[in-house]
Target: NAD(P)H-binding protein
Amino acid sequence: MSTATSQPHTPHTVLGSGPAGTALARELVRRGHPVRLVDRGASGPEIDGVERVAADVSTADGARAAVRGAAVVHHCVNVAYHLQVEVMPRVQEAVLAAVEASGARLVVLDTLYPYGETGGAVMTEDSPWQATSRKGRMRAELDERYLAAHRSGRARVVLGRSADFVGPGVLNSSLGAAVFPGALTGGDVVAMGDIDLPHSYTGIADVAAGLATLGERPDGDGRVWHLPTAPAVSTRDIHAMVEKRVGRPLNVVVLDRPRAYGPFDEQMMAEYEEMFYQHTEPQIVDSSAFERFFGVAPTPLADTVDATVTWYEAWLRNG
Model:
């Protein structure tokens, strides 16, 4: 295991204030770094040690302003499904140009989409990129450009890939608002596809810790890493963990095909149809390379479920 690290009090900028960006900002502050958290409106609650900044990083001027003064930039920007193919390449172009001009290192939060359908094979960093969906091909093309930018010396880049998010603050996920509010209130719990297949979920705290580690460890640059992810279990197993925590059986509604239901509206599910294979074949992520190299282990899923239920209890109480 290599041990080269960046120094504490290194200025980090986090682009995107969704669940991952917000959790990462808190983790970086915990590690002693000054943090700027950027989104289009500088919205959201105050976070101790975090400066909120408004910028549109899909524009050249906005991206330059956002990264100014940062030694490390974390790209956690995402947009609605129906906008991804149009907007994400623009964000990449602007952010890459900005870090090239500033000299900052770039840490990119990535998805499993470039792998496409695997037939249930375990996904490692060496798995082939064989996506056929529009969003999968787009992500693969972006990743090729990030890695090419690093190889050419244009920018110093590293990518951290995550499975489906689960955890405090995660709403728009297959283990988010579709599951936990219903589990706590006796309402419907929505699941997709075959819930008996093994499926990897990455805890949002592990996403944050993994990205923070990549930001502190330039010896990991120039490649894709799988962020720390607990061993895959079935979604039914996750439901059993939730049932144990909430003390009641779940009323599970399984969507065997993409259709609007609960928090999943027609527009979202129409866009998600091409990605539905993720719920009809095993999705198994191997993060052992990251764990060995950086000495970081994932949080046990039972602990993540406990923390998520606790967060949703407070969220429901506060309306």
The chain has a mean pLDDT of 95.
